[in-house]
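Q: Given only this backbone (112 positions), what sequence would you predict?
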């Protein structure tokens, strides 16, 4: 559920997915997803060259605009993830997945 929450927050604040936010400009080439738009990547934040700054839009204005546009889908994603997690737990799917993960030797890295 943590990755879903992180992705929802990244979408709400920066109008992009978690992978693009973390990797664009560092591990991957910049794409139209975060280049001179309201979508912001981590590299842009660190370098201070984000989104519409070239057009005079501040980071606070960019985040406010993104929150106005994306808060409902972000909240919906977190609520849906919680419902799915509760459903998996009540059906016992978590125990089965954890047993499988331990059997392949990844029990300390992955837990459901």
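A: Predicted residues:
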């Amino acid at each position: 559920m943590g990755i879903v929450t992180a992705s929802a927050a990244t979408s709400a604040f920066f109008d992009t997915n978690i992978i693009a936010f973390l990797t664009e400009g560092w591990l991957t080439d910049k794409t139209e997803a975060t280049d001179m738009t309201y979508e912001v990547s981590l590299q842009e934040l660190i370098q201070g060259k984000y989104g519409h700054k070239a057009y005079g839009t501040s980071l606070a204005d960019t985040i406010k605009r993104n929150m106005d546009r994306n808060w409902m889908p972000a909240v919906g994603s977190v609520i849906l993830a919680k419902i799915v997690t509760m459903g998996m737990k009540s059906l016992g799917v978590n125990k089965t997945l954890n047993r499988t993960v331990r059997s392949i030797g990844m029990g300390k890295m992955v837990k459901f």
